Prior knowledge:
Elements: E1 3-8, E2 11-21, E3 24-33, H1 36-51, H2 63-78, H3 81-99, H4 109-118, H5 126-144, H6 171-174, H7 179-189, H8 196-205, H9 209-214, E4 220-221, E5 226-229, E6 232-236, E7 239-243, E8 252-255, H10 258-278, H11 299-313, H12 319-332, H13 337-344, H14 349-356, H15 361-375
Antiparallel strand pairs: 1-2, 2-3, 4-5, 5-8, 6-7
Amino acid sequence: xxxxxxxxxxxxxxxxxxxxxxxxxxxxxxxxxxxxxxxxxxxxxxxxxxxxxxxxxxxxxxxxxxxxxxxxxxxxxxxxxxxxxxxxxxxxxxxxxxxxxxxxxxxxxxxxxxxxxxxxxxxxxxxxxxxxxxxxxxxxxxxxxxxxxxxxxxxxxxxxxxxxxxxxxxxxxxxxxxxxxxxxxxxxxxxxxxxxxxxxxxxxxxxxxxxxxxxxxxxxxxxxxxxxxxxxxxxxxxxxxxxxxxxxxxxxxxxxxxxxxxxxxxxxxxxxxxxxxxxxxxxxxxxxxxxxxxxxxxxxxxxxxxxxxxxxxxxxxxxxxxxxxxxxxxxxxxxxxxxxxxxxxxxxxxxxxxxxxxxxxxxxxxxxxxxxxxxxx
Length: 377
């Protein structure tokens, strides 16, 4: 059995491959000491103990080292890339600075509740606090089982801090744009711009940025005017890669209208013309959203286009604005919540209603009108 050592911060860590569980690779990583020789010696002993069936002593592991271990051995092996990055950010910014020096076995509900209560005072939104709580709960749950480092999860006793119930999402906070704003953006971008088709897809379908970039022609049925969402493009430090949709509900089929149909049909024709013009220099693929030379339109290039639009036109806009605008327009027009939920790929209808139902004055007025009509009979 082989292992390795590496320096992280001021400490040296050792790691080695353990036996597979349910066919999945397991890697054990621990603090080995302050120097490389100490870590190498600790590695040799740990491998010997492991091969002899002896347990590895983690009784005095710190919270900081434990979250490193959890991240390496669970998060990186089981969660999506974007989730890995979000969780690592939470660990570095909010967990290690506050409780990282404590011993894991001494971490109790009182200290954790104190940490959670302080998060809103840092100016963090409720959703951000919920993510931090999720990270804490998930990591400490693994410390109970299967790793048996603590007897119970202290996060089970923690309560979320109170937030102002009137501080609801508004059109401005969600960056819901008007039809007039969208038309200005569409005119500014123009059909020759590589952002034009992603812009149309976002507005007409409510697809997420990565879903738009990952759309391929085999998932577009121009005859039936439908498209399937079954993959996404994510940016990594090594470039872009194809990933799976956000949740199981994100796998979906979306119908679209005549406007998007005409634009996609024209775009497909232009792609074939560009392929003939560039020949060997054309980057051939089956992606819908490509540049003139066939190169993929990535989430990062879309982000740049949105920032440029916001700067040049002075409109509060990002790509997710198109999703919010799409949903709001449907809701204002009387579309059924279940249909909107499925179209957006929300796991629960409550997510759709909680996000959008209170946004529209038109819906509020319709509710009053229904009541007035009923009592006047």
